[in-house]
C-alpha cells in the first residue's frame, strides 16, 4: 500500500491543480466579443462544462503521475508482480453511476440553455432572410421590416435588444451561417429553409463567417453584421427601401450606406 | 515470357490492367453510340472512360496478381490445387510482394503499407501547415489546399488508422487465440491487396484533370455531386477500402468464433481479441452505409440520378444521415482496437490483472450498441428536424460512460502494480492523458448550444486530433513497439523509443491544444486563409507541427535499423502470459508446433503459479498436427 504521506501529498496536489485550473479557465479569453443573450447563455454553459471537466482530468493525471511515482519498478523488483486484484464491484458501480448522473445532469442543463436560446419572442421580433451563394451572403429584409418594398442587400444590420429571426437559405451548395459573436450557426441547405433566432445585446460590427466548405472561395466567404440602435436600424432600412423603390436595383442596393 | 504472363503476378496484372482500360473505352463508346451520344474527342466521354476504368482496372489488377485464382478454378470446375501451403510464410523480401496467405505476412504487409500512407498523409499535413503559417495565399492555391486536407484526412482514416489496426490484429490475434491462421486465409490476402489500390487511387487524384477531390473526407453533397473528376477517385477508392474492411472484419469474427484453442472461452480471451470482435461487428454493420453514400454520389455524378439535387426532388440531408450512420461508428472502429492494445500493455507492464475484466468486455459491447444511436450529433447544425438533437445528445453523453469505465479500469490496474516504464508503457500512459482530453471535448460537443457555436470550427479539428492522434495513433505506436520483437524477431532501440515518445507527446499538445482556442475564437476549419487576428497562434501551431512531423523520423529510423540489425529478441521479452508470447519470435510458420490448451485467464499476473495456456505433450500434438497444419477454408 502507498504510504499515507504520499497519498496526502497527491490529494493536496490534485486539489491545488484543480483550483489553479479553474482559476486559469477564468483568465483565458476563450471567446470573441459576447454580443447576444444567446452568447451569454452559451458562454455560461461552457464555463460550467470546463469547471466540471477539470477535476476529472486532474483525477486521471494525478492517478497516473502518482502511480509512476510510487509504483514504478525499483531495483531488485524486476521480476516481481503486483497484487492479483481482479476488480471491486462497489468501485465499478460507482464509476459507472457517478459519470452517468453527472452527464445526464449536464446534458439536461444544456437543454435548458437550448430552450432559452431558441424560445420565441414574437412580440418584438423581426425577420431577416440570409441567403448563401458561392461565395457571398446576401440579406433580404421583408416588407414587414422595411415598411415598404422588400430590400435585398449585401449588408447585414440588426437592431440591438430586439429579437431577430433568421430564415437561412442556399442557392447552390450547403453553406453555414455563423456569427461567432452571437455563438449561433446553422447550415444553409439547398431546398429547405433553416432558422436561428438571436437577440443582439452589444453595439458594433462583428464577422459573419461561412462555416461549411462550399468550394474554392469558401475561406473568403465572410461578411459583417452591424448591431445598431433600433432608431439607427429604422433609418438605415428606410434609406434602403427608398433606394430600392427608386429603382436602384435590388442587388446594388445597400451600397449607399457605409458600415 | 509467356509463362510469366500466365502465372499470377505483377506481369500478368499489368497486361490485364491495360486490357481493362481498353474494355472501359470500348464499353463507353458502345453505350454512348447506342444511346445516340457523341463518341470521339469529347470531354464528358473522357470522364466516362476514366470512371469506368477506375472500377475495372483495380479488378483487373486483383485478378492479375492471382487474388481470385483459387475460386476461379473452383467455379469453372477445374481441379483446385490442394492446399500445399506454398502461399505461406516469407523467406525473402519478395514474398511480401505477392499474394501470401500467412496471417503473419499479411499482418506485416498491412502494417508497413499503412505506415507508408501515414508518411504520405503526414507530409501533406506539413504542406498544409506551411500554407497556414500566415494568412493569405503562400504556396498553394485554394483548389490545391482543399485537395490537400481532403486527401490528408481520407488517407489517414481509410488507409492508415483503420487498416493498421487490422494489420496488427492480423498478426497477433490468431496467435492470441491459439489458432494456426485466420479462418479464411485467401480472403485475408485479397482484403490486403484492396488497400494499396484505394490508397494509390486517392493519391493519384492529384493528377486528375481539375485536381484532387476537394470537399473533405466527408464529401458532402451537393458539392461533391458537381466537383471535377477527382471526386470520383474518392467515391471509388472508398469502395475498395470499405470492401477490404468488411472482408477482414468477417474474417476476424469467424476466426474468433470458431478457431479458439481448446479451453479458450470468451471470458478467457485477451481484451485485444474482445476489442477486435467489437470492432468487427461495427465494421460489418456500418461500412455498407458509407459504400452506399458514395455510390449515391457516383450515380449522381456519372448518370445524373439526382439523389441530392434539391431542384429535382433530391434530399440533401439524406447524404449526411447515411454518411454519418457509418462515420460515427467509424470513429469507434478507429478507437476500440486501440483500447485492446492498451489493455494488453497496461496489464503486462503493471504486472497486474486488468481491473474489472468483464466490465471491460461489456463496455466494448455497450459502445458497439450505443455507437449506432448517436450519428446525428455530427448534424446538430445541419438543419435537420430540431427534435432529433435531443435524443442524439442524450445518447452521445451516455456513450461517454462505457468509455469512462475503460479509463478508470486502466487507472485501477496501474494502482499498486510494478510499473515498467518502457516505450510501449509510456505511449500507453500518454494515451490515457490525451485521450481523456479528447473524450472531455467530445462530451462538451454533446451539449447542443455549445456545439452550435463550435461545430465545423478548429475546435472540432482539435477534438478529432486529440482522439485520433492522441488516442488512436498513440495506441498504434504503443502496439508497434510492444509487438515489434514478436513480429520481427528483433528488439527496438529503447533510448530512441523514449525520445520518440517525449517529442511526440509534447509537440502533439503544442500543435493541437491551441486549436481549441482558435475554434472558440471563431476560426472555421477547412480554410486556406483566415482573418489576421488568428495569425500568431497559427504560426505557433505550424512551427510545433513541423517538430511533430520530424519526431516521426526518430520512429522510422528506429524501426528500420532495429529490424535490420537490432539485437535478437527472445520469445517472451515482456514476460507476458498471453499465447503469442509463448512461441518463438518470430513465430513458426504455422504458429504452434504443439496445440495450446487454455486453462486460465489471460492476465493472472501476481497469482502464484498461474498460467494462461499450456501446450499439449508432443504425442497428442502429433495426432492433431493435420488440423494445425491445414487452415480450413
Ligand atoms: C466520449 C466520447 C466522444 C464524444 C461524446 C464525441 C462527440 C463528438 C461530437 C458531438 C462530434 C460532432 C461535432 C461537430 O461536428 O459539431 C464529434 C466529432 C468527431 N469525433 Fe468525437 N466524440 C467522442 C469520441 C471520439 C472518438 C473516440 C473518436 C475517434 C477516435 C472521435 C472522432 C471524431 C471525429 C473524427 C469527429 C469529426 C468528424 C468530422 O466532422 O470530420 N470522437 N465527436
Ligand atoms: Cu463556405
Ligand atoms: Cu460521432
What does this structure look like?
The complex is a heterodimer of chains A (about 260) and B (about 625). Chain A is about 45% helix and about 20% strand. Chain A is built from five helices and ten strands. Chain A has helices at about 5-25, 35-70, 90-120, 145, 230-250, and strands spanning about 125-135, 135-140, 150-155, 155-160, 165-170, 175-180, 185-190, 195-200, 205-210, 220-230. In chain A, strand 6 (about 175-180) and strand 7 form a beta hairpin. Chain A is elongated, with a radius of gyration of 27 Å. Mean pLDDT of chain A is about 90; it is low at about 250-259. With about 625 residues, chain B is mainly α. Among the domains of chain B are: about 1-75, no CATH class; about 100-335, Cytochrome c oxidase-like, subunit I domain (Cytochrome C Oxidase, Chain A, Up-down Bundle), CATH 1.20.210.10. Helix content of chain B is about 65%, strand content about 0%. Chain B is built from 19 helices and two strands. A two-stranded antiparallel sheet of chain B has the order 1-2. In chain B, helix 14 packs parallel to helix 17 (about 495-520). Chain B is globular, with a radius of gyration of 25 Å. At the A-B interface, helix 2, helix 3, strand 7 and strand 9 of A face helix 6, helix 12, helix 13, helix 14 and helix 15 of B. The complex binds protoporphyrin IX containing FE (HEM) and copper (II) ion (2 copies). The site of one copper (II) ion has 5 residues of chain B, from helix 10. One copper (II) ion binds near residues 175 and 218 of chain A.
Characteristic terms for this protein:
heterodimer, A: 259 residues, alpha+beta, Immunoglobulin-like, 2 domains, 5-stranded mixed beta sheet, 5 helices, 10 strands, 43% helix, elongated, disordered C terminus, B: 633 residues, mainly alpha, Cytochrome C Oxidase, Chain A, two-stranded antiparallel sheet, 2 strands, globular, binds protoporphyrin IX containing FE, binds copper (II) ion
